[in-house]
Amino acid sequence: MKLSTILEGWKNDYNKDSLPEPIKELFDSRLKICKSNECGQLLIGICTACGCPVKKKTKVLEEECPVNMWEPIKYEIDGKECIVVNELPDQLRKLIQVAGPLEVIPDPTDEDNVIGIMIWEEWQKFLSLLNYELNK
């Protein structure tokens, strides 16, 4: 993890009560997977595969599990930073389908499927709006 990513994990953990509920659910589901230690890599709250504290790493959107127990949601597709909507929790995915600018493209890893993507900047605007609406 880069220093900026580590700081983002600490910031998100500290500010977890002000995060939109669907984002909290995503972070909680990642942490639950890590704490289950199904992969056998957890030792005193640290992932032995990457050396990161799981409580912080799981709270960074663009992070991924080094042993593929959970995926990132931020990717670069065709030179653009995007969120892959298919990998979001159901509640958040439904909100995006209604309110967000969603693009459907062929899945780069499976030619028989399509994925929904949202450009990173649009995602950040969407989260700001969602946070504003939830805190009214």
Word description of this protein:
By secondary structure, the protein is an alpha+beta fold. It has 2 domains: 3-57, no CATH class; 74-134, no CATH class. The protein is built from 5 helices and 6 strands, in the order H-H-E-E-H-E-E-H-E-E-H. Strand 1 and strand 2 form a beta hairpin. The longest helix is centred in the N-terminal third of the chain and has 16 residues, at 21-36. The radius of gyration is 15 Å and the shape is globular.
Strand content is 15-25%
Which residue ranges are poorly predicted, with pLDDT under 50 across at least 5 consecutive positions? none
In round numbers, the mean pLDDT is: 81
Q: How many individual β-strands?
A: 6
**Helical stretch tally:** 5
**Secondary-structure-derived class:** alpha+beta
Radius of gyration: 15 Å
**Tally of discrete structural domains:** 2
Helix content class? 40-55%
